[in-house]
Amino acid sequence: MSERGKALQELSGKVSLVAGALGGIGEAISSKLADMGSDLILVARDSNGLTRLKEKLMETHRETRIWTYPMDLSSVDEVRGKGKEIVSTSGKVDILVYNAGVNSPHHFLDLDLEEWETIINTNLRGAFLLLKEIVPEMMTKKYGRIVIMSSIVAKTGGLGKANLAYTVSKAGLLGLTRNLAKYLAPYNITVNAVAPSFIETDMLRKTGFDQRLEELKKLHPLGRIGTPEDVANVVAFLVSDASSFITGETVNVNGGLLMD
Ligand SMILES: NC(=O)c1ccc[n+]([C@@H]2O[C@H](COP(=O)([O-])OP(=O)(O)OC[C@H]3O[C@@H](n4cnc5c(N)ncnc54)[C@H](OP(=O)(O)O)[C@@H]3O)[C@@H](O)[C@H]2O)c1
User: Fold this and answer.
1) 169: CA distance to ligand 1 center in Å?
2) Which of 101, 191, 244, 255 could make an SS bond with 181 (beta carbons 3.0 to 4.6 A apart)?
3) Which residues are catalytic?
């Protein structure tokens, strides 16, 4: 079989839940996992957006089973108690990618409590709540691959006037990744994080960084900012059997901006 054929088969029979399936990186991850043969559960708030993404993916992946699950991951009521419903719809969840995230252009003194809570509750608490719903089924069947979307700012403390709540949430996710990696290792569940630098998506536009693209490119030794596919390729590796001896790790996707 060709290398491309093998990649397409690699996740066949698996079900992947992508939390934060829309937007630049989420769509690239969903599309990549479908390319690798996985069925998909797509989670985000925008119900129409999820339907649009499902229809788009079905055009090229007719065999793939795709379920959409609109959910606000920052809401305790919307997440708590939903695990059984999600798992019973698809039968199981083998792979969970927690990619949902929000940021804001406000820094320490401009950041009010409401905005702090929205960011922490979406990026960090949402991961905790969703994992508690989905992971027990992985533990029962002794198989799981979990990938958590962190950020370079978790390690650098931010770039420029980085948003405090965003940085705290992404650093918290690295602690969550390492703690759960130890806790879940006996169940053959790996937990790894990805730490991108600047990736060309809506988030970059919403935080105003798109006005500084040339400056940002120069910051990266590789001379460019990242693409959503750069991130999706690393997620693909971390959910595949090729990475089965890697857990608790954070993979930088940053064009050499931070080497640690
Ligand atoms: N772009 C970058 O430069 C960069 C760098 C490092 C890390 N990251 C991380 O990569 C991830 C994706 O970022 P992106 O740039 O692709 O951002 P994006 O285009 O704004 O996408 C964000 C995703 O999160 C979902 N989401 C946001 N709030 C949610 C909520 N309360 N409940 C459920 N889903 C929610 C969005 O869907 P809905 O709006 O429909 O809910 C969307 O799917 C984020 O975790 C981000 O922090 C991005």
Assistant:
1) 13
2) 191
3) 166
